[in-house]
Design goal:
The protein is about 70% helix and about 5% strand. It has about 160 residues and is mostly helical. It has one domain. A two-stranded antiparallel sheet has the order 1-2. It is globular and about 45 Å long. The N and C termini lie far apart (about 35 Å).
Length: about 160
């Protein structure tokens, strides 16, 4: 985890639009942390105690947060590609939610509460809604002139 924390900022320091990308990564991480923590708190799924290190239940575990942060990096590049393709983004969200949570359940690092099919469909629906919104957020950040490198942010 320490290695991840130390290496995470490297691409942002080297990127031309590192400030924008850092903001999107941070926002996607926060959104993902809150959504998955809400799913856990609502009893949709539970993270196995052996798959937790520092973040206690009922919050999202470290590995789920790492997936969201990784997605934040990828969302920056895909935001412009997905412009006007909301149904495709929703389909991708649905598909990846099913794959990730099903595989995590099979590996024993999370438990889908009964009925598992209901839990999977609810998670997939949430991801199908979230992905187009995250891509929209990414486009807004990319197109924002306030976040250009070298520009001062206005002070109130």
């Amino acid at each position: 985890m320490l290695l991840l924390a130390l290496t995470l900022p490297l691409p942002l320091l080297l990127a031309k639009e590192g400030r924008k990308q850092a903001l999107l990564v941070l926002l996607v991480g926060i959104i993902g942390f809150l959504v998955d923590s809400a799913l856990i708190r609502a009893g949709i799924y539970a993270v196995s105690p052996k798959a937790r290190w520092m973040i206690p239940a009922p919050f999202c575990s470290e590995w789920v947060l790492a997936l969201w942060l990784n997605f934040g990096f990828m969302a920056y590049g895909y935001s412009t590609l997905m412009k006007g393709r909301n149904f495709l983004a929703a389909g991708i969200g649905l598909l990846f939610a099913l794959m990730i949570y099903r595989n995590a359940s099979k590996m024993g690092i999370l438990v889908l509460h009964s009925p598992p099919l209901y839990s999977m469909l609810l998670i997939a629906l949430i991801w199908a809604i979230l992905l187009p919104l995250i891509y929209l957020l990414g486009r807004r950040i990319i197109e924002s002139p306030l976040l250009e490198k070298g520009k001062e942010l206005p002070c109130p």
